[in-house]
Specification:
Blueprint lengths: L8 E4 L22 H12 L3 E7 L10 H17 L6 E5 L15 H9 L8 E4 L2 H11 L2 E4 L7
Parallel strand pairs: 1-2, 1-4, 2-3, 4-5
The chain binds magnesium ion (MG).
């Protein structure tokens, strides 16, 4: 159950935003973290925002990699970010292919809805960051929250 004082969240895409897109990243050896994303997350972290990763990982249901591979890659990412002073509060991912018609694949809003049931979040003041206007930006629009394209966040 959600309890405590609601905080705004920085919802952030993973591939192409926090780390270089491979694509279908799953090998920790391929992990390359972008410094502007690190700076941006640190900025919002200092403002008291929760930092929550929202990522489409259809490579799982396409059979390109397993959930264990995903966990390994995410663990490497969390470790790297922790060493750089960023604490990720949670990672939510969608394993489905586009043809499965789920409600969690961005730009659908299911992953954020899950986060809202797990954390006390002030959605109105939350922000979504991503590299795709048509996916990340569209999800932000459906949620009625601000969207920041990482390509415009070079000043962080
Ligand atoms: Mg992306």
């Amino acid at each position: 159950m959600v309890s405590g004082v609601p905080r705004p969240a920085l919802f952030i895409d993973r591939d192409g935003t926090i780390n270089r897109d491979c694509p279908y990243c799953h090998d920790p050896a391929q992990l390359h973290v972008f410094m502007n994303a690190v700076k941006l997350m640190k900025h919002y972290q200092k403002l008291g925002f929760l930092i929550i990763v929202i990522t489409n990982q259809s490579g799982i249901n396409r059979g390109y990699f397993t959930e264990d591979d995903l966990e390994r890659f995410n663990s490497a990412l969390l470790r790297r970010l922790k060493n750089m002073g960023v604490k990720i509060d949670a990672i939510y991912y969608c394993p489905h292919r586009p043809d499965e018609g789920c409600t969690c694949r961005k730009p659908e809003t299911g992953l954020v809805k899950n986060a809202l049931s797990d954390f006390p979040i002030d959605l109105e003041h939350s922000v979504m960051v991503g590299d795709r206007d048509d996916i990340d930006g569209e999800m932000a629009k459906r949620l009625g929250i601000e969207f920041l394209n990482i390509s415009q966040a070079a000043h962080f």
